[in-house]
Design a protein that fits this description.
The chain is elongated. The two termini are about 35 Å apart. It contains four helices and nine strands. A hairpin with a 3-residue loop joins strand 6 and strand 7. The strands form two sheets. Strands 5, 6, 7, 8 and 9 form a five-stranded antiparallel β-sheet that branches. Strands 2-3-1-4 form a four-stranded antiparallel β-sheet, covered by helices on one side. About 30% of the residues lie in helices and about 40% in strands. With about 170 residues, it is an alpha+beta fold.
């Protein structure tokens, strides 16, 4: 059976050790976290975790219920492409020797909506945000056309569409 992508928004207490407890839950059950972002919410009492994993469809309910058994977890919601907006952040340092390469890189950056953060004699550092597939494509183009010196990438971060807040009923 093919695995499905599962993206969860998890509202947790904003205290030390929370990340370790949630990650341990996944590890103990043999689930791999392919992407994880965590940050404080608009209410400093809580943090939001966006967790992406790939699993068999029959495990989705079990993962959500296991998370809710942790006293530090206040709420769990499954985020689908139709009901959420998502983005990733990419910082990438690319080889860019000479004015022609720098101009070509600027044109490419404009096409992908990236912005220049730093320029040196031999490199340019770019920032790009967007859907993971677009970030993947941008990385491939940069690798083949210029060469990547280094990169850092966040995991997926998502919010539910529409009005209201994930913390409204807490």
């Amino acid at each position: 059976m093919a695995q499905v992508k599962l993206v969860l928004s998890v509202l947790v207490d904003n205290t030390s050790g929370v990340l370790q407890r949630v990650a341990s839950l996944f590890s103990r059950r043999g689930y791999n976290i392919s992407s994880l972002t965590v940050s404080e919410t608009e209410d400093p009492e809580f943090s939001r975790m966006t967790i992406e994993t790939y699993t068999d469809p029959e495990n989705v309910r079990q993962i959500k219920s296991q998370l809710l058994k942790l006293e530090i977890v206040k709420k769990v919601a499954e985020l689908t492409d139709e009901k959420s907006v998502s983005a990733e952040l990419l910082l990438v340092k690319v080889r860019a020797e000479g004015i022609d390469n720098k101009n070509a890189l600027l044109a490419l950056s404009t096409r992908y909506g990236a912005r220049v953060l730093d320029v040196s004699k031999t490199t340019m550092t770019l920032e790009s945000t967007g859907a993971g597939e677009v970030i993947d494509e941008f990385i491939k183009v940069l690798e083949s056309g210029f060469g990547i010196v280094e990169l850092a990438r966040t995991g997926v971060t998502s919010l539910e569409r529409g009005e209201g807040s994930f913390t409204d009923d807490i």
